[in-house]
Structures are given as structure tokens and as C-alpha cells.
Amino acid sequence: SDGNYVIAGTWKDDGWNSKACLRKYDINGELIWANIYNNSVANEAYEVIETDEGDIVFAGYSGTQHGAYKFFVVKTDHDGNQIWTKAKNSTGDAILYSLCLAPDGNYVAAGFCNSWRSNLIVKRNLNNGNNIWNECIIGEFNVGGVYDITPALGGGSVSYTHLRAHETLRYLVC
Questions:
Q1: Largest CA distance in the chain
Q2: What digits encode the pLDDT tens for the residues 139-160?
Q3: Phi-psi category of residue 117: left, alpha or beta, with phi > 0 → left and psi -120 to 50 → alpha
Q4: What is the DSSP string of 138-156?
Q5: Is residue 108 within 8 Å of residue 153, measured between CB atoms?
């Protein structure tokens, strides 16, 4: 909302230790601030959004570098100072790839669970990050994760789409 840019990713990934990071740049590409966030040995951020209030939320994973992944959501203020962090187990390993603001103002994220064999959707409370619901969708179709999520047109529900080799799946949730 201030005209600058925030990027999310991984910092100092040496194959065994990694930190999720946020970096904020001005419109000229000058670094304003950079912060790292970790909940365990390995942490990565895959998706970042800005809230209407100017806070920043990102999603990814936290765990060991080669397994035991928990889905990971962090909220910071506009300067990258951590407000809350949540990491939660699911069925098998779990990573969140996409994140959006739900029509009710909370956060909805999507990724995989069951060690890449199933789809995961998660809803978090906007104020404290507590889990509202999460679902590991096992056995309904043969895919390895959801890579995008967006509010559905018409309100009230959330749709997510997974694209893989000329295949499109759309599901309504809530």
C-alpha cells in the first residue's frame, strides 16, 4: 500500500539449514529492510500477501531440511516485525504454496499433505493465526498438491485450482 515491494523466499539455504525471509524494496529497487523467520532447522516462504492494514502474511513450510515438514504461516507488521507464527502438522509432510485473504477477512492457504500425495487446504484466524480448519484431501484424485488459491466470484466460498499436464481441477470449499 506504500508503493514499495515485498518479496518472500529462502535465505542461506545450504542444503541443511534454511530461513524463510522477507525483503522490502522501494520503487527504485533499493533495499528498505530484510528479515528472516524460522521455527525449526528448515523454513521456506512460498507466498506473500499484504493485508488491508498494511501487515504482511506469508506461507510455506517449517521442518527438517529433508522431511518432517509442517505447514507454516507468519504475520508481520509493515516493517517485517513478527506478530505471530504458526506451524502445524498434517497427515505426513505438509507445505503451503499459495495464500489469500478469504471473503470473511481470515486467511486461506493451499498446498500439499500426505507427503506430496494429497491436497491440503487451511483456514487461519486473521488476528492470532489460530487454526479455523484444515483438510488433507486424501484419495479423491491423483495429484500432488494445490498450487494456487483465490476467493471465488460471488463471495462466500473459496475456490482453488491445480494445474498439471493439461488437467484442471476446481473445487469449492466452505
A1: 48
A2: 655 556 677 777 766 654 444 4
A3: alpha
A4: -SSS--S---EEEEPTTSS
A5: no
User: Are 112 and 118 in contact, with CB atoms under 8 Å apart?
Assistant: yes
The answer to whether residues 122 and 96 touch, using CB atoms and an 8 Å cutoff, is yes
Three-class SS state of 81: coil
CA angle 10, 15, 17 (to 5 degrees): 60
Residue in the structure block whose three cell numbers are 503451503: 96
Predicted structure pTM score: 0.78
Quick one: 14 exposed, middle or buried, by C-beta within 10 A (0-12, 13-18, 19+)? exposed
Which pLDDT tens digit goes with each residue over 45-85?
Answer: 999 999 888 999 999 888 876 667 888 889 999 999 999 98
Half-sphere exposure of 142 (CA within 13 A, CB side): 1
Write down the residue that cell numbers 516462504 correspond to: 45
CA atoms within a 13 Å half-sphere pointing along the CA-CB vector of 83: 19
> CA 151 to CA 39: how far, in whole Å?
29
Cβ 96 vs Cβ 61: under 8 Å = yes
What letter would DSSP give residue 123? Answer: E
Give the Cα separation of 149 and 162 in Å (integer). 9
